[in-house]
Amino acid sequence: MRRKRRSYSLTSSTRLEEVFLFQEANRPEEAIVIDDNRKSTLEQAVIPARYSRQILFDGIGMEGQARIIAARVALVGCGALGTVQASLLARAGVGTLRIIDRDFVEESNLQRQILFDEDDVRNLLPKAVAAEKKLGAVNSLVQVEGLVEDVNASTIGRLLDGFDLIVDGTDNFDARYLINDYAVKTGTPWVYGACVGSYGLTFPILPGETACLRCVFESAPPAGFSPSCDTAGVIGPIVGTIASLQAAEALKILAGRRDRINRRITALDIWDNRRDGFDLPPRDPGCICCGRRQFEYLDGTLGADATTLCGRNSVQIQRRNGARLDLDELAQRLAPLGSFEKNRFLLRAVIDDYQLTVFANGRAIISGTYDLALAKSLYSRYVGA
Question: What is the residue range of 242's domain?
Fold first, then answer.
Protein backbone atom coordinates (compact mmCIF):
# COMPACT_ATOMS: atom_id res chain seq x y z
CA MET A 1 0.00 0.00 0.00
CA ARG A 2 1.36 3.40 -0.91
CA ARG A 3 1.90 5.78 1.96
CA LYS A 4 1.62 9.55 1.76
CA ARG A 5 5.11 11.04 1.91
CA ARG A 6 5.93 14.22 3.77
CA SER A 7 8.83 16.54 3.17
CA TYR A 8 11.13 17.73 5.93
CA SER A 9 13.72 20.39 6.26
CA LEU A 10 16.62 18.75 8.10
CA THR A 11 18.80 20.82 10.38
CA SER A 12 21.54 19.88 12.78
CA SER A 13 18.99 19.97 15.59
CA THR A 14 16.42 17.74 13.90
CA ARG A 15 15.72 14.71 16.03
CA LEU A 16 15.88 11.32 14.33
CA GLU A 17 12.51 10.44 15.85
CA GLU A 18 10.95 13.37 13.99
CA VAL A 19 12.39 12.22 10.68
CA PHE A 20 10.83 8.78 11.13
CA LEU A 21 7.45 10.12 12.23
CA PHE A 22 7.77 8.52 15.65
CA GLN A 23 6.20 11.48 17.44
CA GLU A 24 2.47 11.86 17.83
CA ALA A 25 2.22 14.87 15.53
CA ASN A 26 4.05 13.21 12.68
CA ARG A 27 2.37 9.83 12.40
CA PRO A 28 0.89 9.08 8.94
CA GLU A 29 -2.85 8.52 8.76
CA GLU A 30 -2.90 5.59 6.34
CA ALA A 31 -3.14 1.97 7.52
CA ILE A 32 -0.58 -0.72 6.81
CA VAL A 33 -2.11 -3.95 5.52
CA ILE A 34 -0.41 -7.15 6.64
CA ASP A 35 -0.32 -10.14 4.25
CA ASP A 36 -2.48 -12.41 6.40
CA ASN A 37 -5.23 -9.76 6.64
CA ARG A 38 -4.11 -8.60 10.06
CA LYS A 39 -4.19 -4.79 10.02
CA SER A 40 -1.98 -2.46 11.98
CA THR A 41 -1.68 1.31 12.00
CA LEU A 42 1.21 3.38 13.24
CA GLU A 43 -1.29 5.11 15.53
CA GLN A 44 -1.91 1.76 17.23
CA ALA A 45 1.69 0.50 17.29
CA VAL A 46 4.37 3.17 17.25
CA ILE A 47 7.63 1.91 15.73
CA PRO A 48 10.30 2.19 18.44
CA ALA A 49 13.32 4.37 17.68
CA ARG A 50 15.64 1.39 18.23
CA TYR A 51 14.73 0.23 14.69
CA SER A 52 15.49 3.59 13.08
CA ARG A 53 18.56 2.47 11.14
CA GLN A 54 16.66 -0.51 9.77
CA ILE A 55 13.80 1.75 8.65
CA LEU A 56 16.29 4.01 6.90
CA PHE A 57 17.07 1.08 4.62
CA ASP A 58 14.72 1.47 1.67
CA GLY A 59 14.19 -2.27 1.32
CA ILE A 60 12.38 -2.37 4.68
CA GLY A 61 11.08 1.10 5.51
CA MET A 62 8.18 1.79 7.88
CA GLU A 63 5.78 -0.68 6.30
CA GLY A 64 8.33 -3.49 6.25
CA GLN A 65 9.22 -2.87 9.88
CA ALA A 66 5.56 -2.98 10.88
CA ARG A 67 5.26 -6.34 9.15
CA ILE A 68 8.36 -7.65 10.94
CA ILE A 69 6.98 -6.55 14.31
CA ALA A 70 3.70 -8.37 13.56
CA ALA A 71 5.45 -11.58 12.47
CA ARG A 72 5.80 -14.92 14.23
CA VAL A 73 8.98 -16.88 13.47
CA ALA A 74 9.94 -20.38 14.60
CA LEU A 75 13.64 -21.23 14.74
CA VAL A 76 14.30 -24.97 14.84
CA GLY A 77 17.70 -25.66 16.40
CA CYS A 78 19.76 -23.20 18.41
CA GLY A 79 23.32 -24.27 17.79
CA ALA A 80 25.89 -22.60 15.57
CA LEU A 81 23.48 -21.35 12.89
CA GLY A 82 20.57 -20.87 15.25
CA THR A 83 22.33 -18.59 17.72
CA VAL A 84 23.32 -16.17 14.96
CA GLN A 85 19.87 -16.28 13.38
CA ALA A 86 18.16 -15.76 16.73
CA SER A 87 20.34 -12.79 17.60
CA LEU A 88 19.78 -11.07 14.24
CA LEU A 89 16.02 -11.67 14.17
CA ALA A 90 15.49 -10.58 17.77
CA ARG A 91 17.48 -7.40 17.16
CA ALA A 92 15.49 -6.80 13.96
CA GLY A 93 12.29 -6.74 16.01
CA VAL A 94 10.45 -9.94 15.05
CA GLY A 95 7.30 -9.87 17.16
CA THR A 96 7.37 -13.48 18.36
CA LEU A 97 10.46 -15.66 18.12
CA ARG A 98 10.08 -19.29 19.18
CA ILE A 99 13.39 -21.12 19.65
CA ILE A 100 13.17 -24.92 19.77
CA ASP A 101 16.19 -27.02 20.72
CA ARG A 102 16.71 -30.39 22.44
CA ASP A 103 20.35 -29.97 23.49
CA PHE A 104 22.31 -28.33 26.32
CA VAL A 105 25.32 -26.00 26.24
CA GLU A 106 28.76 -27.63 26.17
CA GLU A 107 32.19 -26.04 26.24
CA SER A 108 32.91 -27.05 22.65
CA ASN A 109 29.92 -24.95 21.55
CA LEU A 110 31.44 -21.66 22.65
CA GLN A 111 33.82 -21.37 19.68
CA ARG A 112 30.92 -20.63 17.30
CA GLN A 113 27.59 -20.50 19.15
CA ILE A 114 27.55 -16.80 19.90
CA LEU A 115 24.71 -16.57 22.42
CA PHE A 116 26.34 -18.82 25.01
CA ASP A 117 29.09 -18.37 27.58
CA GLU A 118 31.01 -20.31 30.23
CA ASP A 119 28.33 -19.74 32.87
CA ASP A 120 25.84 -21.56 30.66
CA VAL A 121 28.23 -24.53 30.48
CA ARG A 122 28.80 -24.56 34.25
CA ASN A 123 25.06 -24.35 34.89
CA LEU A 124 24.24 -27.10 32.35
CA LEU A 125 21.65 -24.83 30.76
CA PRO A 126 19.56 -26.08 27.86
CA LYS A 127 20.32 -24.04 24.77
CA ALA A 128 16.73 -22.84 24.37
CA VAL A 129 16.67 -21.61 27.97
CA ALA A 130 20.01 -19.82 27.68
CA ALA A 131 18.99 -18.23 24.38
CA GLU A 132 15.70 -16.95 25.75
CA LYS A 133 17.49 -15.39 28.71
CA LYS A 134 20.14 -13.69 26.56
CA LEU A 135 17.75 -12.39 23.91
CA GLY A 136 15.33 -11.08 26.52
CA ALA A 137 18.12 -8.78 27.68
CA VAL A 138 18.91 -7.77 24.08
CA ASN A 139 15.37 -6.80 23.07
CA SER A 140 12.62 -6.86 25.69
CA LEU A 141 10.07 -5.84 23.03
CA VAL A 142 10.31 -9.24 21.33
CA GLN A 143 8.41 -12.19 22.76
CA VAL A 144 11.11 -14.85 22.88
CA GLU A 145 9.97 -18.38 23.69
CA GLY A 146 12.67 -20.93 24.41
CA LEU A 147 11.31 -24.49 24.26
CA VAL A 148 13.41 -27.48 25.31
CA GLU A 149 11.76 -29.89 22.90
CA ASP A 150 12.60 -32.44 20.23
CA VAL A 151 10.96 -31.65 16.89
CA ASN A 152 9.64 -34.93 15.53
CA ALA A 153 6.62 -36.20 13.63
CA SER A 154 4.45 -36.25 16.76
CA THR A 155 5.42 -32.78 18.05
CA ILE A 156 6.00 -30.64 14.97
CA GLY A 157 2.40 -29.54 14.52
CA ARG A 158 2.10 -28.45 18.13
CA LEU A 159 5.40 -26.59 17.98
CA LEU A 160 5.08 -24.86 14.59
CA ASP A 161 1.37 -24.30 13.95
CA GLY A 162 0.48 -20.61 13.62
CA PHE A 163 3.95 -19.35 12.65
CA ASP A 164 4.61 -17.27 9.54
CA LEU A 165 8.13 -18.53 8.83
CA ILE A 166 10.46 -21.37 9.84
CA VAL A 167 14.23 -20.88 9.95
CA ASP A 168 16.45 -23.96 9.81
CA GLY A 169 19.08 -24.19 12.52
CA THR A 170 19.16 -28.00 12.58
CA ASP A 171 22.12 -30.28 12.02
CA ASN A 172 20.71 -33.37 10.29
CA PHE A 173 18.73 -34.40 7.22
CA ASP A 174 15.91 -36.12 9.10
CA ALA A 175 14.96 -32.88 10.82
CA ARG A 176 15.17 -30.89 7.59
CA TYR A 177 13.04 -33.34 5.62
CA LEU A 178 10.51 -33.29 8.44
CA ILE A 179 10.41 -29.47 8.37
CA ASN A 180 10.07 -29.62 4.58
CA ASP A 181 7.10 -32.00 4.81
CA TYR A 182 5.39 -29.75 7.34
CA ALA A 183 6.14 -26.57 5.39
CA VAL A 184 4.84 -27.96 2.09
CA LYS A 185 1.71 -29.39 3.70
CA THR A 186 0.88 -26.12 5.50
CA GLY A 187 2.23 -23.68 2.90
CA THR A 188 4.71 -22.16 5.37
CA PRO A 189 7.93 -20.66 3.90
CA TRP A 190 11.23 -21.76 5.39
CA VAL A 191 14.93 -21.02 4.94
CA TYR A 192 17.38 -23.93 4.64
CA GLY A 193 20.99 -23.61 5.77
CA ALA A 194 23.89 -25.96 6.48
CA CYS A 195 27.62 -25.72 7.02
CA VAL A 196 30.58 -27.90 7.96
CA GLY A 197 34.31 -27.18 7.92
CA SER A 198 34.63 -23.93 5.96
CA TYR A 199 31.79 -24.72 3.54
CA GLY A 200 28.12 -23.84 3.69
CA LEU A 201 25.03 -23.39 1.59
CA THR A 202 21.57 -21.88 1.93
CA PHE A 203 18.38 -21.27 -0.01
CA PRO A 204 14.79 -20.30 0.77
CA ILE A 205 11.85 -22.62 0.11
CA LEU A 206 8.50 -21.04 -0.76
CA PRO A 207 5.85 -23.78 -0.99
CA GLY A 208 3.86 -23.47 -4.19
CA GLU A 209 6.46 -21.16 -5.76
CA THR A 210 9.89 -22.79 -5.55
CA ALA A 211 11.30 -26.28 -5.48
CA CYS A 212 11.03 -27.97 -2.09
CA LEU A 213 13.95 -29.65 -0.33
CA ARG A 214 13.16 -33.04 -1.87
CA CYS A 215 13.13 -31.51 -5.35
CA VAL A 216 16.73 -30.42 -4.65
CA PHE A 217 17.91 -33.42 -2.58
CA GLU A 218 15.55 -36.29 -3.30
CA SER A 219 16.85 -38.40 -0.43
CA ALA A 220 19.32 -38.13 2.40
CA PRO A 221 22.84 -39.47 1.89
CA PRO A 222 23.50 -42.90 3.42
CA ALA A 223 23.99 -42.96 7.16
CA GLY A 224 27.59 -42.24 8.07
CA PHE A 225 28.37 -40.75 4.67
CA SER A 226 28.00 -37.06 5.49
CA PRO A 227 30.63 -35.31 7.62
CA SER A 228 29.41 -33.38 10.65
CA CYS A 229 30.85 -30.60 12.78
CA ASP A 230 31.83 -33.20 15.37
CA THR A 231 33.86 -35.27 12.90
CA ALA A 232 35.06 -32.70 10.31
CA GLY A 233 35.03 -29.57 12.44
CA VAL A 234 33.65 -26.13 11.59
CA ILE A 235 34.94 -22.57 11.82
CA GLY A 236 32.91 -19.68 13.17
CA PRO A 237 33.08 -17.37 10.12
CA ILE A 238 31.23 -19.80 7.81
CA VAL A 239 28.55 -20.25 10.45
CA GLY A 240 28.09 -16.50 10.79
CA THR A 241 28.02 -16.00 7.03
CA ILE A 242 25.43 -18.69 6.25
CA ALA A 243 23.24 -17.75 9.21
CA SER A 244 23.36 -14.08 8.19
CA LEU A 245 22.28 -14.97 4.65
CA GLN A 246 19.41 -16.99 6.11
CA ALA A 247 18.39 -14.07 8.31
CA ALA A 248 18.50 -11.73 5.30
CA GLU A 249 16.12 -13.97 3.34
CA ALA A 250 13.90 -14.22 6.42
CA LEU A 251 13.67 -10.43 6.65
CA LYS A 252 12.77 -10.17 2.96
CA ILE A 253 9.93 -12.65 3.46
CA LEU A 254 8.71 -11.00 6.66
CA ALA A 255 8.90 -7.48 5.22
CA GLY A 256 6.79 -8.50 2.25
CA ARG A 257 9.61 -8.10 -0.27
CA ARG A 258 9.21 -11.42 -2.04
CA ASP A 259 10.48 -9.81 -5.25
CA ARG A 260 13.91 -9.50 -3.60
CA ILE A 261 14.14 -13.11 -2.37
CA ASN A 262 17.16 -14.97 -3.70
CA ARG A 263 15.67 -17.97 -5.51
CA ARG A 264 19.04 -19.62 -5.98
CA ILE A 265 21.29 -21.92 -3.98
CA THR A 266 24.16 -19.94 -2.49
CA ALA A 267 27.28 -22.02 -1.69
CA LEU A 268 30.40 -20.67 -0.01
CA ASP A 269 33.81 -21.94 1.01
CA ILE A 270 35.42 -19.10 2.89
CA TRP A 271 38.73 -20.92 3.38
CA ASP A 272 39.24 -21.70 -0.30
CA ASN A 273 37.73 -18.34 -1.33
CA ARG A 274 34.91 -19.76 -3.42
CA ARG A 275 31.38 -18.44 -3.84
CA ASP A 276 28.93 -20.10 -6.18
CA GLY A 277 25.31 -19.58 -7.07
CA PHE A 278 23.13 -22.27 -8.63
CA ASP A 279 19.62 -21.92 -9.96
CA LEU A 280 17.11 -23.88 -7.94
CA PRO A 281 15.65 -26.65 -10.08
CA PRO A 282 12.05 -26.13 -11.19
CA ARG A 283 9.34 -27.66 -9.07
CA ASP A 284 9.16 -31.34 -9.91
CA PRO A 285 5.60 -32.59 -10.54
CA GLY A 286 6.89 -36.05 -9.66
CA CYS A 287 8.44 -34.92 -6.36
CA ILE A 288 7.22 -37.26 -3.66
CA CYS A 289 6.63 -34.30 -1.31
CA CYS A 290 5.44 -31.18 -3.15
CA GLY A 291 4.31 -32.98 -6.32
CA ARG A 292 2.66 -36.17 -5.09
CA ARG A 293 2.09 -34.73 -1.61
CA GLN A 294 3.27 -37.82 0.24
CA PHE A 295 4.78 -36.70 3.54
CA GLU A 296 6.94 -39.65 4.53
CA TYR A 297 8.79 -37.90 7.35
CA LEU A 298 5.69 -36.20 8.71
CA ASP A 299 3.70 -39.45 8.85
CA GLY A 300 6.67 -41.33 10.32
CA THR A 301 7.36 -43.62 7.36
CA LEU A 302 10.95 -42.34 7.23
CA GLY A 303 13.21 -41.03 9.98
CA ALA A 304 14.99 -42.38 13.05
CA ASP A 305 13.08 -43.94 15.94
CA ALA A 306 14.42 -43.78 19.48
CA THR A 307 13.43 -45.99 22.42
CA THR A 308 14.88 -46.45 25.89
CA LEU A 309 16.22 -49.90 26.81
CA CYS A 310 14.89 -50.90 30.19
CA GLY A 311 17.48 -51.24 32.93
CA ARG A 312 20.44 -50.47 30.68
CA ASN A 313 20.73 -46.66 30.85
CA SER A 314 20.69 -46.83 27.05
CA VAL A 315 18.68 -45.64 24.09
CA GLN A 316 18.25 -47.48 20.81
CA ILE A 317 18.13 -45.51 17.56
CA GLN A 318 16.46 -47.43 14.73
CA ARG A 319 16.34 -46.16 11.16
CA ARG A 320 13.18 -47.29 9.40
CA ASN A 321 14.72 -47.28 5.94
CA GLY A 322 17.42 -49.78 7.01
CA ALA A 323 20.18 -47.91 5.15
CA ARG A 324 23.49 -49.80 5.21
CA LEU A 325 26.44 -48.23 6.97
CA ASP A 326 30.10 -48.41 5.98
CA LEU A 327 31.62 -49.34 9.32
CA ASP A 328 35.19 -48.97 8.05
CA GLU A 329 34.55 -45.38 6.96
CA LEU A 330 32.78 -44.62 10.25
CA ALA A 331 35.73 -46.06 12.20
CA GLN A 332 38.13 -43.75 10.36
CA ARG A 333 36.03 -40.71 11.25
CA LEU A 334 35.61 -41.65 14.90
CA ALA A 335 39.21 -42.78 15.54
CA PRO A 336 40.49 -39.29 16.55
CA LEU A 337 37.59 -38.80 18.98
CA GLY A 338 37.92 -41.82 21.27
CA SER A 339 38.60 -45.54 21.52
CA PHE A 340 36.74 -48.11 19.46
CA GLU A 341 36.58 -51.76 18.52
CA LYS A 342 34.97 -53.25 15.43
CA ASN A 343 34.02 -56.55 13.82
CA ARG A 344 32.04 -57.27 10.68
CA PHE A 345 28.76 -56.85 12.54
CA LEU A 346 29.19 -53.67 14.57
CA LEU A 347 31.45 -50.88 15.75
CA ARG A 348 31.63 -49.89 19.41
CA ALA A 349 33.14 -46.51 20.31
CA VAL A 350 33.65 -44.76 23.65
CA ILE A 351 33.50 -40.99 23.28
CA ASP A 352 33.47 -38.79 26.38
CA ASP A 353 30.98 -40.38 28.80
CA TYR A 354 29.02 -42.36 26.23
CA GLN A 355 29.35 -45.68 24.48
CA LEU A 356 28.02 -45.96 20.92
CA THR A 357 27.36 -49.40 19.49
CA VAL A 358 26.58 -49.00 15.81
CA PHE A 359 25.35 -51.79 13.55
CA ALA A 360 25.80 -52.09 9.80
CA ASN A 361 22.09 -51.45 9.14
CA GLY A 362 22.33 -48.03 10.83
CA ARG A 363 20.84 -49.12 14.14
CA ALA A 364 22.69 -47.87 17.21
CA ILE A 365 22.59 -48.24 20.97
CA ILE A 366 23.71 -45.17 22.89
CA SER A 367 24.76 -46.15 26.41
CA GLY A 368 25.13 -43.70 29.26
CA THR A 369 21.77 -41.95 29.01
CA TYR A 370 18.02 -42.51 29.11
CA ASP A 371 17.42 -39.14 27.41
CA LEU A 372 15.91 -39.74 23.95
CA ALA A 373 16.72 -36.25 22.68
CA LEU A 374 20.33 -36.47 23.85
CA ALA A 375 20.75 -39.92 22.28
CA LYS A 376 19.39 -38.62 18.95
CA SER A 377 21.76 -35.67 19.16
CA LEU A 378 24.75 -37.97 19.76
CA TYR A 379 23.66 -40.18 16.84
CA SER A 380 23.46 -37.16 14.53
CA ARG A 381 26.85 -35.89 15.66
CA TYR A 382 28.89 -39.04 15.40
CA VAL A 383 27.04 -41.35 13.01
CA GLY A 384 25.21 -38.85 10.82
CA ALA A 385 21.70 -38.30 9.53
Answer: 71-279
